[in-house]
Amino acid sequence: MLVGVPNVGKSALANSLHQIGRVSAAEKGKFKHATIASHPNIYILDTPGILPPEILDAELSSKLALTGAISDSLIDQSDLAQYFLSILNLSDEYKKWAKFSTTYNNIAGTCGCGSELETNGNQIDFVVQAVRLALFEEISAFKGNMEDENDMVQLIETQFTTLRNVLNVTSDSCGYMNNVVSTKLINLYRTGRLGHYTLDSFPRTCEF
Ligand SMILES: Nc1nc2c(ncn2[C@@H]2O[C@H](COP(=O)(O)OP(=O)(O)OP(=O)(O)O)[C@@H](O)[C@H]2O)c(=O)[nH]1
Ligand SMILES: [Mg+2]
């Protein structure tokens, strides 16, 4: 039985397993039986994702919201984007984007940070590249202390201002602009285009 919070890929896993079963049955010439599936070797039960009715831990609910487990209509998108930026700023992911930065490459010479970015063949979306570059340069130019909450808030504010330009969000209303920027940023994160992040650190020892 596949059980878990919403949107973690239970159904995708069930479908993949089902697909594997069909392919291997077809290879063995048992396709008809597989489609009828009257006597499968394994029964997989998918379940709808569930959450407790109330989550009091703010960090936990932010993580769940970031993954899409909690409906976006219940969460302030600007708060969520700020939370994501604090994770990104403290991570190593952005360092992989150094190769796009001419300023950085001029100072640092060659970039020795192994990049996973697509270099041959795959055309990276221009906007994604511009967002990565802007974030990289803001963090690199940052002189404050990331561990200090006030410094971090300041960096995130600067990033928002830059992202408004990069994402071409113009309006008279600052609140509206921040919401548009936030929605776009969260979307880039959820589609994996701003790197991969482990939201919950893995326990060093497992207690059973
Ligand atoms: N990047 C990535 N995305 C995945 C993976 N598995 C599923 N997804 C995506 O995650 C989203 C949710 O996947 P589902 O399989 O519907 O998740 P679920 O756990 O069944 O969600 P509920 O039924 O709402 O509880 C979909 O957009 C999937 O395409 C994976 O292994 N990697
Ligand atoms: Mg599902």
UniProtKB/TrEMBL annotation:
The record lists the lineage as: Eukaryota, Viridiplantae, Streptophyta, Embryophyta, Tracheophyta
Q: What name does this protein carry? A: P-loop containing nucleoside triphosphate hydrolases superfamily protein
Recorded GO CC terms: mitochondrion
* InterPro entries reported in the protein's UniProt record: GTP-bd, GTP-bd_ortho_bundle_sf, P-loop_NTPase
Biological process GO terms, please? mitochondrial translation
- Is Manganese tagged as a keyword? no
Gene Ontology MF terms in the entry: GTP binding; GTPase activity
Identify the keywords attached in UniProt to this record, alphabetized: GTP-binding, Hydrolase, Nucleotide-binding
Q: Which residues form a coiled coil?
A: none
Q: Does the keyword Transport apply?
A: no
Residue ranges of domain G in the record: 1-56
